[in-house]
Amino acid sequence: MDEAELAAVTARIEQDGIAGLPGAFERSWVARLGEDVDAAFAEALSREGGAVGRGPNRYYVEIHPEQLRGFTELVTHPWIDAVCAAVLGPDYQIVEVGFDVPLAGAVDQPWHRDFPMPGETRDTGRLTSLAINVTTVDTEEDMGPFEIAPGTHRETGEDFEHGMFPPDTEYPRYRSLATRKYPKMGDISIRSALTIHRGTANVSSKSRPVLVLGVDAPGAGNDERHDTAVTREFWETLPDSLKRHLHCPVVDVLRPITQKHTIEGLVMGASG
Known about the structure:
This protein is α+β, with helices and mostly antiparallel strands. 26% of the residues lie in helices and 19% in strands. It has helices at 3-16, 27-45, 71-75, 78-88, 119-124, 171-177, 232-235, 240-243; strands spanning 18-21, 52-53, 58-62, 93-102, 129-135, 146-148, 179-181, 188-191, 197-199, 210-216, 230-231, 250-251. A 7-stranded antiparallel beta sheet has the order 1-8-5-10-4-3-2. A 3-stranded antiparallel beta sheet has the order 7-6-9. A hairpin with a 4-residue loop joins strand 2 and strand 3. It starts with a helix and ends in a 21-residue tail after the last strand.
């Protein structure tokens, strides 16, 4: 990516809160990613606390990096690296690896952001975190596409419940702003998790898994919500250029993650 392209992408994130890169990966690479996500989801559902509800028939699962055979290729993708460094600084940190799975029957989520606006963003306008999304399937209209209201990452949220859920009197405005996203296998997007968004109702018979990679500026603090770890054996396979961004425990044996990033307001689901 040249300087002009990078400037255009970062400007789009600053203005809209989201930018995308179609065809970033080969479909065969994404198919393998989908196999790993499906395996991790089945394992998570088999034990208590392995998956957390994000509404009816909708789950979130945090996993360890080495559960994905393509982890290194994902996080070292030149576009992801360049955008994260430009927005968050050269010492950005990878703090979250997980995935959302809206199953058949998932309902509309309430409009929300993923956490309250940090003081630094409110006071200076600087974004301190980004979320990278990679779909493992081709998204179709009946599968409950992701819906986002561009530009809303700049709303302070002072009247939001828990700093995350805007009052329902604002729903018509968000609907008027919103765009639905229909990514295909191989596409990636980077967004501010502060941008107001929701998953829509999945009226198909298919699931729509989406990988989530959470990235922070140093000191942003979102690592406190997550339990990412790697084994010593896996750590030794990583390039030094990646190790500098992966600040997590290096252990002898991985422990299955018990999910703790519950967003209570999403559990019941709500249309709007």
